[in-house]
Specification:
Structural class: alpha/beta
Strand content: 15-25%
Largest sheet: 7 strands, parallel
Number of strands: 22
Distance between the termini: 32 Å
Oligomer: single chain
Length: about 550
């Protein structure tokens, strides 16, 4: 596939009966493929697909070698497939035989003795960063969390550079000088110079992260329990040195439940942990004074920690995508798959989530599970999740967003077949239900929604200490405690949004790189990020997105 990528179209898998346009193709464009010559009868935009033979109503459509849809009308040869002429379809799945043979990438041997500089924790894990967390057990404490943020961040040197206040001053000046609304709309605002944080008081701490959420009470007990599990995953995370937790006291998400979840994940938990309950302490002032004192003394203690060498087997990489396009499954996602295979061969862990975006590849993934127990767990999670979605009138078929569809992912199965490429080819060593923790090296499947912030939040809660995030349309997503590396599927979006994107895989589409070459470049960057040498854009911009999953329906 990759050697001929400079062509204007591509067949992804020999079994596919549609071709993918790599550039905009006009109606009348002559296509020469496998000795056959025909002309396009419709224009086909880059990233979209067109037929290589006539299809009748009901005929299957294959991409990536799997069923991704069915024609809902007759489609002539050389026509674009669209939401009007095909509908979502995917193969059924059942318990099959184990298919765990795979080939380790040759380049993996070159990374066998490489290390990164990380923070070694008492439980044997290694962090790629060193944060203190301040989190609420219930949404009632969000305001107090924000007060602590205002009090601590700037004074301790952790505040991000100033934002757009200078631009607002420009607007005020124009308004006061009598400029019209048209004048204001046409004006070029003066960009603020990049500010510089004051010197950090605690040099070995990357920051204090203050989380907010809208859960903990008023919902189902299942959701509040899951929230406690997620927060425990963040507190015990290798990138976290210690935490301050504020509780109101009367909510569903009780401090005792959180403590139990922490013990499940780390029976010998020894990090500094400040737990304060407002209804026991009394006034807000007393609560905040106590939080400030105990947090500050905790910071003094964890500031003694320093980075030390660690093998790459201590990396746990979350595999994520958002704002996907028709090139995702051809460039960036397969690159992540190659990186995944390298890391798994070194004893590391990778996490593939977003279960609505694994629709249609269930048979392959369940067959790759190391034992039948894991295969059955995966299939049951997929069936249960889709059934609950359908009961609410929106099955997995409704997953693609308008942006996905506009850029070539017109059925959920097309999107899923490309998304699954992030997981590479290694066996599935474990299947996890949200918010379970990764405990085994290798490829882990984690049940999450396809919503990228909820999924990234969950992957980090399960232990991912680096996240690789592919995007074809561009997205500013990040995470409070784990560096999120943004990978563009195409050069156009990389050049358009360089402020939020870190790596360009459009080089594959343009024939300048192979997937293997792109993967090496990416893994080298991951090692630098994990060592604190480089910071991805999401970290620099402070994109601290955190959304717990309400187990109701979220695709």
């Amino acid at each position: 596939m990759l050697q001929d990528i400079k062509h204007t179209f591509i067949q992804i898998h020999p079994a596919d009966n549609v071709l993918v346009a790599l550039t905009n193709l006009d109606a009348g464009t002559v296509i020469n493929f496998n000795g056959d010559q025909f002309s396009l009868i419709t224009a086909v935009a880059a990233k979209h697909k067109f037929t290589m033979g006539p299809l009748q109503n009901g005929d299957p459509i294959f991409m990536y070698g799997v069923l991704v849809g069915k024609a809902c009308t007759d489609i002539p040869k050389g026509a674009a497939i669209t939401t009007e002429n095909i509908k979502h379809a995917s193969e059924g799945f059942k318990l099959g035989t184990r298919k765990t043979d795979w080939t380790v990438p040759e380049i993996a041997s070159a990374y066998r003795d490489k290390t990164f500089m990380g923070y070694h924790r008492a439980d044997g894990s290694v962090g790629t960063a060193n944060y203190w967390l301040v989190i609420p057990l219930v949404f009632c404490e969000n305001r107090n969390i924000n007060v602590l943020k205002e009090a601590l961040s700037a004074k301790l040197g952790f505040a991000k550079p100033r934002g757009y206040e200078n631009e607002v001053d420009n607007l005020i000046e124009m308004y006061q000088s009598g400029k019209t609304t048209e004048d204001i709309l046409q004006a070029d605002l003066q960009t603020s110079p990049e500010g510089h944080n004051s010197k950090k008081l605690f040099e070995n701490i990357d920051g204090i992260k203050f989380l907010n959420h809208d859960m903990g009470c008023g919902g189902t007990r299942t959701d509040s329990d899951a929230l406690c599990g997620l927060l425990a995953g963040y507190i015990t995370h290798p990138n976290v040195a210690g935490a301050t937790v504020l509780s109101l006291g009367c909510q569903h998400a009780q401090a005792g439940i959180l403590q139990d979840e922490i013990q499940k994940r780390d029976p010998n938990f020894s990090k500094p942990l400040v737990m304060l309950e407002q209804q026991k302490i009394g006034t807000e002032t007393k609560l905040l004074h106590e939080a400030l004192k105990q947090t500050f003394t905790g910071l003094i203690e964890v500031n003694k920690q320093q980075r030390q060498p660690a093998p790459l087997s201590k990396l746990c990489i979350g595999l994520e995508c958002g704002g996907s396009d028709g090139f995702s499954g051809i460039s960036a996602n397969p690159t992540l798959g190659y990186v995944s295979d390298i890391l798994v061969s070194l004893g590391g862990s990778v996490v593939l989530s977003e279960f609505p975006e694994l629709c249609g590849v269930e048979q392959e993934l369940s067959d790759r599970c190391v034992d039948e127990t894991q295969a059955l767990k995966y299939m049951n999670l997929m069936r249960t999740y889709n059934a609950r979605a359908e009961a609410d009138g929106s099955g997995f078929y409704a997953n693609p967003s308008p942006g996905n569809i506009r850029d070539g992912l017109i059925t959920d199965a097309i999107k899923s077949a490309g998304a699954a490429k992030k997981g590479g080819t290694s066996p599935v060593t474990a299947v996890l239900d949200y918010p379970e923790k990764v405990t085994k090296p290798g490829l882990n499947l984690l049940c999450t929604p396809g919503s990228d912030v909820e999924s990234t939040t969950a992957e980090v809660g399960s232990g991912a200490n680096v996240v690789l995030f592919t995007t074809g349309l561009g997205t500013p997503t990040g995470n409070p405690i784990t560096p999120v590396i943004k990978i563009a599927t195409n050069t156009a979006v990389f050049n358009k949004m360089p402020d939020i994107l870190d790596i360009n895989c459009g080089t594959i589409i343009e024939g300048e790189e192979t997937i293997a070459q792109s993967a090496v470049r990416m893994l080298d960057y991951v090692i630098e990020v994990a060592s604190g040498i480089k910071q991805p854009k999401a970290v620099i911009l402070g994109q601290d997105d955190f959304i717990p999953w309400k187990r109701g329906i979220s695709l």
